[in-house]
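Input record (Table S2, row 348):
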Amino acid sequence: MKEHLQDIVKCVRCGRCRTVCPVQKVLGWEFAGARGRMQMALGLASGLAPTEGMLNSLLNCTTCQQCVTECPAGVDPQKVTRAARHKLISLGQIAPYQKEMLNRIQDTGNSLGDKSSRTSWLSKPAVSEQCEFIYFAGCLASYREKNTADATYRILEPFGVCLLQDERCCGSPLFRLGLDAKDLIKHNSSQVEKAGAHTVIVGCAGCYSMFKEHYPGFNVLHISEFLADRLEKIPLKKLDISVTYHDPCHLGRTHGIYDAPRKIIENICTLVEMEDSRDKANCCGGGGGVRLGNPELSGSIAENLADKIPENVDYVVTSCPLCYRNLSDVGITVLDLADLIWMSIGED
Ligand code: SF4
Ligand code: SF4
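Output record (iron/sulfur cluster complex):
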């Protein structure tokens, strides 16, 4: 924690982050927001004994980074929060669902604890030879959004993209919860090397962030980046629908991927922007382990986002299966970007 002290003391307690934090908007009290968490992190770094209240507050951060965008002092509260979670674990303060996530991944290699095949979504056999580009499907697409995984692969396959022989969780769920993801990073990295690939393509914002920040040695692209540069080679047909686009936090605010998904959408149908978009986009509520640990809070944040959807759009398009699931669960009609592309190509 001490290595984050410099970040922590940069917080001038101005409270600007209180106006944007989606968790504070729902829970309404100081320690549910970035400023309060910075105070708790300061306490921890100064040797204050951890409490259950501290753990609950620190675990309720979706790591959306809306506070980072807003902070005039250049503080990164979500980075400090993650470090504080790690510190709490080292002091024996670990929530049951953090342990559950660890067990799921240790037992099955995926964040759902699903013991079935990771590639049961494949509607036709995968290309197994070595290739330059890998499609890393991720846990949620592999086990919960199988049609999206299949559509993504079928869009990418003509470009010579193949799958890892033994893909496992990218490690993002562990990392965000303050746990160690080194073994997963080592395993997936060795799989990429074995395939001889120089680029990993992902369809999930969490996987993207994890690969980009923690997997050295190869390029990482979101499918929107890969496809936006190859649009003339994809047989897209115009669709008579209008959609809005939800920027996933870990794709947009964290890595600045705003234009590529929009370029693809505008080649397919009408795009109507939300009032808050790009770096001001609202969080879906699913990240940072909050969907697992506090589903009620997660749902309330998604409901707040629902109020911002422009009228008369047919779909909210997003490019992350976690956003897809969290927004769908509160009744929003969501479409993954890959499914929109597949719909436009017009194959079943
Ligand atoms: S906006 Fe930045 S400086 Fe202001 S209270 Fe929040 S974290 Fe601290
Ligand atoms: S990262 Fe998001 S949820 Fe966490 S403190 Fe900042 S604004 Fe709030």
